[in-house]
Design brief:
Number of helices: 6
Order of helices and strands: HHHHHH
Number of strands: 0
Distance between the termini: 68 Å
Low-confidence stretches: 3-26
Largest sheet: none
Mean pLDDT: 84
Oligomer: single chain
Length: about 180
């Protein structure tokens, strides 16, 4: 009985470093980027713009990978960038869902988000087919489409809501205008 317990404990311990490494993975955000997101947490419009900026950085890096001569590891770098992009796009989409339900004012950011989704889709389709990143690209393109659809739907919803509920003066505690 003790041998079995010892064996199970050793087996679990041996698997621990693998599990920790798998959870750590490649960081999607740098510490500075995490700080930018935290700083923009109280103003919904600013937060959407921060996400657009962070995603633009990944898209620009992807563009640069294919604008320069090929280097070893480019396909894996493409895969990693697409996964980072998708994680950020999914997080932004979750934020949009929350902002829509709570009627947070993101009217200024939504047209910019629509423009960005067009740009992101074009750049994401640019690299040639490669099995290293084709699935990651497909998922990224789906995330772009989800963002595009959400923004397209939210623009008239936001216009209608804020026409019916004009914002009051700015609330210094919240950092943005709130409907009545």
């Amino acid at each position: 009985m003790q041998r079995r317990s010892l064996f199970l404990a050793l087996a679990a311990f041996a698997m621990l470093p693998c599990a920790c490494h798998a959870q750590r993975g490649q960081a999607t955000l740098s510490d500075a980027e995490v700080e930018q997101i935290r700083d923009s947490a109280y103003v919904a419009n600013d937060r959407v713009m921060v996400f657009i900026k962070l995603i633009d950085v990944r898209i620009k890096t992807l563009e640069d990978l294919y604008a320069k001569p090929r280097r070893p590891g480019r396909e894996q770098d493409t895969h990693d960038l697409l996964e980072q992009f998708t994680a950020l796009a999914d997080e932004l989409n979750d934020n949009l869902d929350d902002y829509g339900e709570r009627h947070r004012d993101i009217r200024k950011a939504l047209p910019k988000l629509l423009e960005a989704t067009e740009r992101w889709g074009t750049v994401t389709r640019t690299p040639p087919d490669n099995e290293t990143y084709n699935l990651a690209r497909k998922i990224a393109l789906e995330a772009i489409q989800d963002l595009h659809d959400a923004a397209t739907q939210m623009i008239p919803e936001q216009k209608a809501w804020f026409a019916a509920h004009p914002p009051q003066k700015e609330d210094p505690l919240q950092g943005e205008s709130h409907p009545r």
